[in-house]
Amino acid sequence: MFFNFAYSLLRVVFFPFYRLKITGRENLPESGGMLVCANHTCLKDPIFVAFALGIKHDYAFMAKSELFNNALFGFILKRLGAFPVNRAVADVRAVKTAIHSLRDGKTLILFPEGTRRKDAVVKAGAGMLAVRSGVPVVPVYIGGKKRIFCRTEIRIGKPFKLESPARPDYNEAASEIMQKVRGLSLDGAL
User: Fold this and answer.
1) Which of 7, 32, 67, 121 is deepest in the core (most CB within 10 A)?
2) For 8-12, 60-64, 180-184, which range has the lowest pLDDT when averaged over its residues?
3) Which CATH architecture has domain 2-183?
4) Could you tell me the pTM of the whole model?
5) Which alpha helices (H) appear in 31-124, and where do they start and end?
């Protein structure tokens, strides 16, 4: 309910100033858990992805633990379905929360690069969550200038599942996910 309220409020305040072109919504599974993976180059990316997906899904977000240090902001994040992940260590609690959320039918939004830097390395976590949860992965590409009054295009790709071999290579799985995300960019035409 809080998510729907925040979505509606941001839609009135945020949406008119950003010319969003969203394609591929028909690719979203109707029900069940899914792992939505997107590129991340801007602070507004989580909002862009939320607008692209709409409000019909039950969401969970993994966010860096530092964002929860501010009591008010941390409270809002938790009400939106976010949970903290400590990126400095192997955060088992965050992984368990993510897998439980996916298996409970939630849509987990994740940015596999983990940071907004252009030289970001893809983290293995996205691959691990996709393989261990067994849910479909939905690639999303956010392109354009991502500035006020500029066109921002968001492309939602077809869902796919990763194999669950006896000895999975999570780095390779995460790289495969990001290849699908980057493949939606149409060679940088956005």
Assistant:
1) 7
2) 8-12
3) 3-Layer(aba) Sandwich (3.40)
4) 0.86
5) 45-53, 71-79, 92-103
Token digits of residue 159: 């869902």
- Cα separation of 22 and 28, whole Å? 12
Helix axes 125-133, 92-103, angle to 10 degrees: 40
Length of the chain in terms of residues written: 190
What ranges do the domains of the chain cover? 2-183
pLDDT value at position 27? 95
Interval 139-144 mean pLDDT: 91
Mean pLDDT over 151-159 rounds to: 93
Strand order in the sheet with 34-38: 19-23, 151-156, 137-144, 34-38, 107-110, 59-64, 82-85
Strands 107-110 and 59-64: parallel
